[in-house]
Amino acid sequence: MSLGAQGGDPLASLLFVSMSQDCTSMAVGTQHGYKLYSTQNPDLLDQVYSFDGCDVRIVERLGSSSLVAMVSLSQPRKLKVCHFKKGTQICNYSYPHSILSVRMSREHIIVILEEGIYLHSSATMKIVHTIRETPRNPLGLCAICHSKETKYIAYPGDENKGDVLIFDTCNLACSLIIPAHNSPLAALAFSADGRQLATASSKGTVIRIWSIPEGTRLTEFRRGLRRPVTIYSLSFSSDGLYLASSSNTETVHIFKLDQPQEDRSATGGDAGRKSEGAAAAAAAGGSSPAGTPTSATKADGQQQGWMSYLGSFVAAPLKALPQQVTETLSEKRAFAVVKLPTPDQRTVCCVGYPDGKSLPRVMVACTDGHLYTYTINPQEGGECSLYKQHSLLPTASSHKEPTQEEMASTPVGGLANLSPRGGHGFDSLTADSNSSSVCVLSDDESAPASARLTPTHTVSLDADVP
User: Fold this and answer.
1) What is the pTM for the complete model shown?
2) Contact 101, 107 (CB under 8 A)
3) pLDDT score of 335
4) Rounded-to-integer distance, Cα 124 and Cα 107, Å
């Protein structure tokens, strides 16, 4: 998301930070270029690539691939898609108005303007569909589903209230409108499997989870009661067990979602995580034959019976209360919280298992130029402990302007040539300065689809999108 740091040293201001949903990679845009990081090792912020040369206000990386989409602050209407490992540019499009955000999947590159959305094919980079005259979307809100089974994007359906429009990118048609909030939307996020959508409004007090594609409300989380806040980001963990929310306060909320025990075992098995039910059974003294209750099970059953009996007395008076009051009392609270050192910052967060181990972690990037990593206690929740802190801003000694020789050797895409760290590249890149077009050639059959363009494929660089 755009961090939009204002004021301060222009040599050390963050413009943009985006994180992958699985917390394994991050892209950072600054006044002087962009950097790509691997965050799989929470002890080390591993810089994968760095480019200095222009102010980058948007930079999105397609997963862990070498494809990067970028928009500069000085040319907000232009989108460049590049192959950073080879330092080559694939295409360059201009749009009628400023680009507010970009989303990427293996099938599509989504370009969001204030009143329009353009869908490009990731294979050919051509525009496959245009959603014209969308409701005014000044924040450039758009969530994209990365699941192999479901192909949706979500964006605001009304500028005055919190309607969400679900667009099917396979059938290129609107499939659902969800009346999510009474106030305009502030944040959207799909779960990794695409079956849930989290929404938050400009009031920032309630976060709702919706089932996709049915559009039914699954649950509701209460972020706070005291005052409205501005929610900057929402992020599901890759296993769908946690949802993180960051705002303009110093508190990041982590909510725990209801999930069947068998689903937790399946999603957590790859990372070596046991379900909480299995861990509790092991701590209680081992397993017992199927259908044979243990003493712990009997005790739990008796306790649940008493709680159910007492709960009936508590629930009866609630029915007489106004609906708004009962809804507030029934809303779930945060399972865990993160306390940032400084309030009133723009933030972006993600929650997951970046190192593939059992402990979930929360990563928060702030406009103070730092990436904070916190550890969640999966059993107790509560306040998370700070695990690591990394600086995202270049130091005065590390930043230097490119020399004339470096500028002369920079290819048409505006990327410096690098020795590739693995992956695929292009065999040739030809550009005609008179016709403002570029032709990308590759005979590598194992290269990504977007790199296997035919020799006759030409992409307009500066012509307006039709």
Assistant:
1) 0.72
2) no
3) 95
4) 10
Return the residue matching tokens 């400084």. 342
Give the Cα separation of 150 and 80 in Å (integer): 27
d(CA 332, CA 211): 17
List, as one string, the DSSP characters of 15-70: EEEEE-TTSSEEEEEETTEEEEEE-SSTT--EEEEEEESS-EEEEEE-TTSSEEEE
pLDDT digits 0-9 by tens, 80-107: 999 998 888 999 999 999 999 999 999 9
Burial class of 233 by CB neighbour count within 10 A (0 to 12, 13 to 18, 19+) = buried
List the structure tokens of 187.
């944040």
Taking each helix axis as running N to C, give the angle between helix 276-283 and helix 261-269, from 0 to 180 degrees, rounded to the nearest 10. 100
Phi, then psi, of 446 in degrees rounded to 5 = -90, 0
Helix (H) or strand (E) holding 304: helix 295-318
Q: Which residue has 């107790």 as its token pair?
A: 380
Mean pLDDT of the chain: 74
> Apex CA 2: angle with CA 389 and CA 217, to 5°?
95
Over the stretch 31-74, which tens digit does the pLDDT of each residue have? 889 999 999 888 889 999 999 888 999 999 998 889 999 999 99
Residue type, position 143, single letter: A
How far is residue 173's CA from residue 171's CA, in Å, rounded to a whole number? 6
CA separation for the pair 101, 296 (Å, rounded): 53
Q: Which residue has the tokens 């307009």?
A: 460
148 pLDDT band (50/70/90 cuts)? confident
Sign of the CA dihedral running 142, 57, 347, 44: positive
H/E segment holding residue 437: strand 437-441
Radius of gyration for the alpha carbons in the chain, expressed in angstroms and rounded = 24
Q: Of 121, 124, 98, 95, nearest to 108 (Cα)?
A: 121
The two beta strands, 108-113 and 370-375, are unpaired
Alpha-carbon gap, residue 419 to 243, rounded angstroms: 38
| 323-347: pLDDT as tens digits | 444 344 445 789 999 999 988 889 9
Query: What local confidence, expressed as pLDDT, does residue 317 receive?
Result: 52
